[in-house]
What we know:
The structure holds 2 protein chains of 2 kinds. Chain A is globular and about 50 Å long. Chain A starts with a helix and ends with a strand. Chain A is an all-alpha fold. Chain A is 71% helix and 1% strand. The longest helix of chain A is centred in the C-terminal third of the chain and has 25 residues, at 160-184. Chain A is built from 8 helices and 1 strand. By secondary structure, chain B is mainly beta. In chain B, the strands form 12 sheets. Chain B has a 7-stranded antiparallel beta sheet, with no helix packed on it. In chain B, strands 11-8-40-39-38 form a 5-stranded antiparallel beta sheet, with no helix packed on it. In chain B, helix 3 (58-88) crosses helix 4 (90-107). Chain B is globular and about 85 Å long. The termini of chain B are far apart.
Amino acid sequence: MSPAANDEARLVDRAKRDPEAFGVLYDRYVNQIYRFAAARLRNPQAAEDITSEVFFKALRALPRYRSTGHPFSAWLYQIAANAIADHHRGRRHPETELEEAGDVADGAEPLEETVVARAEAARVWAAIAALPEQQRMAMTLKYAEDLRLAEIGKIMGKTEGAIKLLIHRGTRSVRAALAVGRWAAPPVPEEQVP
Amino acid sequence: MNWRGASGRRRARRGDPGVDPDLLAIFGEDEDADPELLPFAQHLLSLRDLRPGSAPDRGFQRGLRARLLAEAHQRRARRVDVGLKLGAGLGLAGVALLAVVAIVVALVPPPSQLVRAQSRQSGRHDLAPTQAIQLSFNRPMSEQRVSQGLRIRPAVPFTVTWTNPRHLVIRPRHALARNVSYVVTIARGAARAADGAEAARPIVIPFGTAVGHTPVVPPTAGPRVTAVVELALVDGAAGLLQGPGGMLYISAVGPIAPTGTRTIRRLPLATRHQAAAGGGAEAALGALAPLRPEAAPPPSTSVSRSPGTRASPDVAPSASASSSPNSPPTAPVSPQVGAGASPAGQAIAPSPTPPAPLLTASPAPPPAPSPTPGGIAVLGPPPPAATSPTIRPTIHPGGLAVLSAGPSPLSPAARPSPTSTAIPAATPAPAFRPLTPAIAPAGPFVTVFRLTPDGASGVALLHAVRGARLAPDGTTVAGWARGPGGSQVLEVANTAGARAVEVLMRSSLPDPTCAWLDDGHLLVSTAAGLLSVGLDGHVAPVDTGVRIGPEGYFVLAPSGLDLYSVPGGRPTVTNLTTLTAVNLPGLVAGPVWSPDGAHLAYVRRVGGVETLELATADGSSPTVLVQGAPGARIADLAYSPGGGFLAFTTSRPGGPPELTVAATATGMVTTLSARPGIADPVWNAGGSAVSVLQQGPRRLADAVLTFRLSDVGAVGLSPTGVAAQAAATLAQAQVAGPSAQGLATRVLAPAAQIPASTLFPGQFNRDYVVATTPIDASARSFAVDVHLIRDATVSHPTQYLQEQLTVELAGGRARVVAITASVLQPVPLGPTVMQTSVQAGADGTTVFRLQFDADLDPATVSARAVSLTVGDTVVAGLQLAFSPVTRILTVSAGPLPPGPLTLTVGAPLADVDHTPMGAPFHLTLPGTIPSLEAAPPG
């Protein structure tokens, strides 16, 4: 086990008794879990709900947590994946996003590059969102969270080989979708009067 | 998509050390695989930081952390408790435990059937006073039952809106007090779902409002002009904006010529002193007639107002309405502020002749020249290669050195042709956030320039656009330019001027308007409603329930919850949460929202008389701040950055406009200047200067002038105010803890014997300087009552520590020389006093102002609740008024005999939830009332 993994194991062990240590774990992983939920749900409010649910569940289940050699984050992702699945099951109406595009340019880089890069990222994530559920989750965990294949397999309950296949297929599909979209994508939208 | 190296990105290959090993394992193992997939996959990985929704809201993050840790502590405490008990009698307890478990399993619903709620605002203590509180439930709720069981402490009136059966929005009717901890509770029995499920315990949502600058004692004098400088000459000036970093953004039909901070008038020291005594005006005229001293009580307190008059045109800071001491108890409580205030209703004195204007000018604005095909009216010889947006120097035929801008880099024909895009379905109840404050009708096509604060250089950003708007962060400016086929296109440009213009969308409307959301989206008005437009061109409709016609325009409050619009000629403020509207009849200027979004300022004209009024952010509870003379016009409202002052222009037929500043707390007015053609005042970021446009008689004769002011924050502080500021500094240092030791040492007297343990308890969340009263007759020594508040936690209620500081003024500084502290005790129930001030008017009246943390029930504001004694004598004839807008109870007394004063307020005062004041409040003074005469801190 690497020194970092040892540190994390000790921190998790301490968090079972010390609330402040749980706070450290929370600080370390809240952004990742939120991002994962946001990428899957594309709804900030729902992503916050899922993030809350993940950490409250983790807090309550922590005394029973036993390390299996995977990072602690893999356990959190597993909880999040289940919570998102529950969310999808319980939702009666699809939620519509008001703002799907990226955030405003932060001024650190030229506006044009920022706009282009964000627009590109928005198209990529829109294409990933259109993939089948299993591919979408594997792609999100790889490209958004940069997790190792083994960790993704642990989270999704699949073999590493199966994850490779999902990501391979997903990546090909995204590339194909973007290649089509490149020619069809409108550079400037026109106001459309309903 | 650009992942092949053309954009400079290196193509990932097998064996490259920078390639992700997993991706290599997926895409690189098969030599027959598509060679483009690996670099593409590697590029996808590089986009992870740009994916949407990459970071949660900070407030949510903090709130969730607080709730998690609270539960973690509770669970830990329970484990310890259970462990101890089990250890003491394991056998018997085991049997009992089994029985209890059996009962619990039988009676208590499983967690999945319990009602749970969460709020993004929970645990946050940085909320704006106008923030709505939103609760999300895990199941559809019984809306009526929940609404009835809902409480906010300290009590404030609020409205409740259900956007759907699971989502509740609570909106305080008035802006909340700053720096106060609030708690929303829903009783356990009221937290019932539509299917009958209940919460396991009461739902509690704690939150707090952000600390804001609230003057302990209202300033007693307005700002003074210390210098007037000219930053630039402008041809056909159309508008002025202040941006971050002190940058000025000027809209003009023609070019501008930066002049580099040329001082055109500096008041000599003697003159400045004179000006201070007389108002600090560069020239003071009399376009304002009756003025009032402070935001008046709400209509429910039945306060009438009799107009006062400015005494002398060259005594600007006097302004105040007065009220007769013999008025009945419900009459206005308006201290006569400043010497020489005239009786109510007196006609305005004739204005003196204004000083000769520094630029020969006529008030009439120059005709707007037609833009050249490139969009720019160039006065000098056209520049040879007119493609750069940077201003280049040329020589004006009139001999003035000017800078002229080249034609637009994107002529209408060259602009990309917009195409269609799908617009998703409308989303109701948008989560608006702060916006650019003002959206006005578009006006003429202009060039937008950015001018450095020193007037040394400028850049042209957008050419031939209308309705230009600067993003709140100052990085981007947007405007409407002529598009193909008679349409208009929405252009944006980086304010650094480093790149070309971007076209976002096209509109077929003749006069479209737009505003910035703080997340970088633009809100655009169209014939069909409002659209949200991202900088990437993504367009989404926004359903506000308000339709704005082609002739209308809109302004959104900084809170994003209120929309001012003119849909069909009727000025209306619409609450976007409840979609209820308040009409503002007779509105002729504004509105503008205060920087904290809590108040709205606007000008109404009724019967030929214009009044500058303040209201709460949703347009309710209007009060008159300043009243103009008959025929006078009030326009161009601009809040100072701290919200303490409003700058505006006033004018009368035949007279030059005046640049005027009014204190928002008192209505005290200071005229800064009277110059022909001045308009569009804007404050700089520090509130130390006001810039204006001055329209000249000829093209290129317009000017950008800056009036440098004495320190608006400190000016006019009485010795009491100086002492209170020192106490506030020490209180803030104590709340901040040991890290603020440097702050504390600035105000601690060197020889003061103050134990360090008193100074830095490190256990408090907020502080209030409640009262500052002179100890000696010379008013150089003060007793300051400070409350240090410890917010409630799971283990204790809200508590406070009362400190009494002794502050002495010496050598131009205020020093804390002693501290005595009480024990920590719970904050009593009901309304509590947060701040007080006492002032004496020249007519002998004494005015006490007490600010509460809660809204008082108007029915309880009566003579029985307030008593004033001088020695042992009870003073009769007190006049009372309470304003829910400011939460200030004003107590006014006529001339008082000499002697120590004690003001007591208590029962039957109660808040709007009928909770009586838990403990009476006493304010004791030795008999020396600080007068309104300003004394500089030194």
